[in-house]
């Protein structure tokens, strides 16, 4: 439940939607929703064909849940959540936030506050701007190769293009049209932001890799798959 002491922050963020793609996150989704609810009143979970009751758990935690009838992929789940947020004309800001517990709500809060200064349209979270995120040397190399490829493809200059934590304003949200359902959707987002000439910046964020999140797809092998997915597409 939200902390009554955060009522001013919740009011401040009544114009913000947190989009959480969810696929079989029953062990952690309740805590993810509870932590987000301390700062954000509008949490949209897109249950992407989970068979473990993840959507029901998220709904019990106070999130608005949109169900996909089957697993379409993270890109499709993000697109569904963004479109749902756009249906509300009072929503000005959007945050994409992974459902496996690796992201920090405090980081999301600071990213939205950066948007409110209206100097940028998009804030990308980067795990490479400080030393808080623990990465193996091999994973760091693979992710750096992926971001180099994305930068060359899109023309943007980012340090971390495949971080699921990002924030953007309504204009950017309305321009996003994802067709890549796999992990290459992250590069697709960057490419569409580049083509729209939107103003962007990066903020350091802390990604927490747990045994659970690694099992869910944050392993080195998954990073290699991202790189090959980018090249093939």
Strand order of the largest sheet: 3-2-1-4-6-5-7
- Cα distance spanning the termini: 42 Å
Number of helices: 10
Query: What proportion of the residues form beta strands (DSSP E)?
Result: 15-25%
CATH topology: Spore Coat Polysaccharide Biosynthesis Protein SpsA, Chain A
Q: What is the makeup of the main sheet?
A: 7 strands, mixed
Estimate nothing, just give the exact number of structural domains. Answer: 1
CATH superfamily: Spore Coat Polysaccharide Biosynthesis Protein SpsA, Chain A
Shape summary = globular
Radius of gyration from CA coordinates: 16 Å
Using the 3D structure, state the CATH architecture: Alpha-Beta Complex
Mean pLDDT: 89
In N-to-C order, the SSE pattern is HEHEHEHEHEHEHHEHH
Question: How would you describe this protein?
Answer:
The chain has 233 residues and is of the alpha/beta class. Helix content is 44%, strand content 15%. It has a seven-stranded mixed beta sheet, with helices on both faces. Strand 2 (43-48), helix 3 (54-60) and strand 3 form a beta-alpha-beta unit. The protein starts with 6 loop residues before the first helix and ends with a helix. The mean pLDDT is 89.
